[in-house]
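Hey, I'm writing a tutorial for new members on how sequence and structure tokens pair up, and I'd like a real worked example in the thread rather than a made-up one. If someone can provide the structure for the chain below, I'll link this post from the tutorial.
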Amino acid sequence: MKFNCSFCIAYVDIGNRREQGVVALPDYTPSALFNKMAQRLFLMLLFFCPFSVSAADTWSYHQEKDRLSNRTYSLAQSPLPPRGLYDNIRLEIICKDNSLQVVVDAHNLIASQGSSFDVEYQVDKNPRVTLQMSTFKDSRRRGYNEDQAKRIIDEIVTGQSLFIRVNTMIRKVLSAKIPLEGAAEPVKQVVSDCGLSLADNATSESAYSLAEFEREFGQLTPEQQRQVLNKIKIIIMEAQKALLIEK
């Protein structure tokens, strides 16, 4: 049914007389129906969008099942960086089979399955760190590192932001700036799931970190480095003796 006018002439027979009048009709034109549907859709978007955007901007804790082993594992997942400024890269902290992993998840190709690739990251103004990761056997866009996982986690929970660069097999560099605000709680939960605890320096910003030591140690002369190492050796030996006495 289609009307092209909003008002139409109507004739009504009353006895021997015919009365004429103007009757208002609802607008059933396609454009009117489309406008009503568009208004409803717009209201729905206004209602739901603020919640989805807020959830996407924070670190989150999840429990999932491994597709191959069917075992449950936990992970802390970072938000995606701002669209258009950086590449789509997520950082994940995973506890799987009682082992911690730091995982890089990218939308772009990184390397062939089971291959190694280089990653550089920097937390706040700390020195830039270079490490090697390996892609999973079933993915070319996800890579992990277990050896340096604990050290990276200690830096994440005390930092404000992390800048990462991923060197891909096609010589393209993927980069992203990942916020670390709100990362501490979900990351601590994952570490706890693995039966571990964070280092003391991860709970105090004023503690002397390994990254700071490496930076300042590298500024010393070879002779000064030798003296420092000798003193560290003595401190470690005394600590080991103290532990033996306590036992």
